[in-house]
Amino acid sequence: MGNSYSKEDAVHDPIIDQRNLESLRSYLRSYNPPRECVGGYLNILLFGLVGAGKSSTINTFFSALDREGRTANIAPWSSSDRSFTPELWSFTPETLKFRFWDAPGLSSKDYEKNAEKILTMILDGRLPPGTKIKDLDPDLECKYPVTEENKIHGVAFVFNLETVDNLSADVLNEFRKLQALVGQKYLYRIVIGTHFDQIGIPKSHEAYIYQYKRLQEKFSQLSEDIKMDKRVMFAISNDLKGGHIEITKAVLALYALENMVRNLDLFFRVTHQ
Ligand SMILES: Nc1nc2c(ncn2[C@@H]2O[C@H](COP(=O)(O)OP(=O)(O)OP(=O)(O)O)[C@@H](O)[C@H]2O)c(=O)[nH]1
Ligand SMILES: [Mg+2]
Are strands 98-102 and 89-91 parallel, antiparallel or unpaired? Predict the structure, then answer.
């Protein structure tokens, strides 16, 4: 495949075929959280900059999880640069045992300078679905009591792979703090890189995406910048055309989700022993 690919530096090696898709789907569709998980759902928060693709990622997960791979449009997404998701929302695929929490984009004015406080409130289950982040008073935690079943168990930090190299030092610094905050709470965290369809990988090579050097470089740099391990970084594409998600995109999305759910489950069991 030429110099632009390297097998040795690949952090993941998913098998891209229908059989693996079925097996990932079957694991996730039949997943049951441990009994100690109050409410019976694993809560997964998607957190990132405005327009990084958080809501679209949720739609991709829904599409890939559908038995026939029908493209879903559950979480409202934006076709402009403005923040489209001003409220915190949660979405549960029918009959499945995890909930995706969609938070407003970080650079939106809604957070002002309170990102750490607001993220802490979300993680602690203080904010129910529908909360408008803009209207929050982050100094009044007692006004927002903890609801056990809304506590977050794992966080996916979402970055647009196309623009991730151009983020300012301030933004990266903020993410470094936020991911450390999540770590201090013993919650599992990953990075989801969206827009892999826009970083120059020929369609015929998408199955070897983790061998692609440009992607490896992007993950290495991000790993240094925000201090997260490359092995918890995953690439997906939310560019879904037509009525059905393509096998490659579905496998790559579920591969990331399965890693998250498996490790989150393990974390949860260890910390609740
Ligand atoms: N080509 C491509 N476009 C994407 C991808 N992911 C998201 N987009 C587009 O990027 C734009 C923003 O996506 P959203 O899902 O609304 O982003 P968000 O992070 O939820 O944004 P906020 O709610 O405003 O914070 C939309 O136009 C999406 O169609 C991707 O993987 N590939
Ligand atoms: Mg959104």
Answer: antiparallel
